[in-house]
Design goal:
Strand content: 25-35%
CATH class of the largest domain: Alpha Beta
Distance between the termini: 61 Å
Radius of gyration: 22 Å
Low-confidence stretches: 1-7
Structural class: alpha+beta
Number of helices: 10
Order of helices and strands: EEHHEEEHHEEHEEHHHEEEHHEE
């Protein structure tokens, strides 16, 4: 299952299939990309870890795009970490940022309440796909109720796509090339895709307060799916983060008895879509009074991109609405 010239490189997604188990999947390894995005904003470590998980999850899901398009993962919730946005372009360009309450996050850290679920709280996770020349748009939403991003993704695929899915994510700091540390993230996802629809049957979702006499539908999981899922659940964080354990080696460890086929890897890069022209066009759409309110003491209008932290400065005359 060798890809010529590919050794499970950082900042890449490796698609694969295990035909004997009727599963397909993808493995992602983020090195310099994750470190650049997380270090750029100097997030507190627990916040950086959750944003890193969102980067890895977005890479796993977004890399399914076949043509020009865009995938966006966004959380909005009532926890200390109120919002995360990660964009993925079909070209492999990624960007992301988070909004959080510094005081509340500091209190959560002091109290030791830094799990992903505790930081996100209750809200929703939205996944949006824009694809095709007509910009066809599809959005799936799943509730966040104090669970991890892995669990939220599992819930989405069970409820909306009805595809048995298992995802493992990991984020951590490792020794960098110098004396400091660098952020890394990784993940692996498998999905059960048999040709027979009968093998896709899953147990009913827990209805909550069911009426008296309700009998849940008991469905035995397919043996092939149980094996694939169980193997992925054994993956440890260090296997997803260790720079010396590439994606191919990880897949061999998991599926060497069954055999895995790998496909062309997808290269990823840290790249923002912002530009001076785009920001200028955005500002020109504000009303004259709104633009006047944006003028700083130095007489200029400044805008900082939330994704890449790049700052753009304009004279008010540069963003006047064109005369029709």
């Amino acid at each position: 299952m060798k890809v010529p010239g590919f050794e499970g490189a950082d900042d890449s997604v490796l698609p694969f299939a295990v035909d004997a188990l009727d599963v397909r999947g993808r493995a992602v390894r983020l090195g310099p990309l994750a470190d650049a995005v997380l270090a750029r904003h100097d997030y507190p470590a627990p916040v950086a870890r959750v944003v890193g998980e969102a980067l890895a999850l977005t890479a796993l899901l977004g890399s399914a795009l076949k043509d020009a398009g865009r995938f966006q993962l966004q959380t909005k919730s009532d926890g200390p970490l109120g919002m995360i946005v990660v964009d993925y372009e079909a070209s492999g360009a990624m960007r992301g940022y988070a909004r959080f309450d510094e005081e509340v996050v500091a209190a959560a850290i002091a109290a030791g309440e830094t799990s992903t679920g505790a930081l996100l709280g209750a809200g929703h996770l939205a996944m949006t796909v824009e694809q095709g020349v007509a910009n066809t748009r599809y959005q799936g939403i799943v509730a966040l109720q104090g669970q991890s991003l892995e669990e939220a993704a599992h819930g989405y695929f069970q409820q909306s796509e009805q595809i048995p899915t298992r995802i493992r994510l990991a984020v951590g700091e490792v020794l960098g090339g110098g004396e400091g540390h660098a952020w890394r993230a990784g993940g692996v996802m498998v999905q059960f895709l048999p040709t027979s629809p009968d093998r896709l049957r899953q147990a009913d979702i827990d209805p909550g307060d069911a009426p008296a006499g309700y009998v849940p539908d008991v469905v035995s999981e397919d043996d092939a799916w149980v094996e694939a899922r169980s193997l992925v659940e054994t993956v440890e964080d260090h296997e997803l983060l260790d720079p010396t354990v590439g994606s191919e080696r990880l897949l061999y460890r998991l599926f060497h008895e069954r055999g895995a086929r790998v496909f062309d890897p997808v290269a990823l890069r840290d790249e923002c879509r912002c530009s001076r022209d785009r920001v200028q066009a955005m500002l020109s759409r504000f009303s004259p009074q709104e633009r006047r309110d944006m003028v700083a003491d130095d007489g200029m209008i400044g805008v900082t991109c939330e994704f890449c932290s790049r700052r753009y400065v304009f004279a008010p005359s540069e963003v006047e609405q064109p005369q029709g």
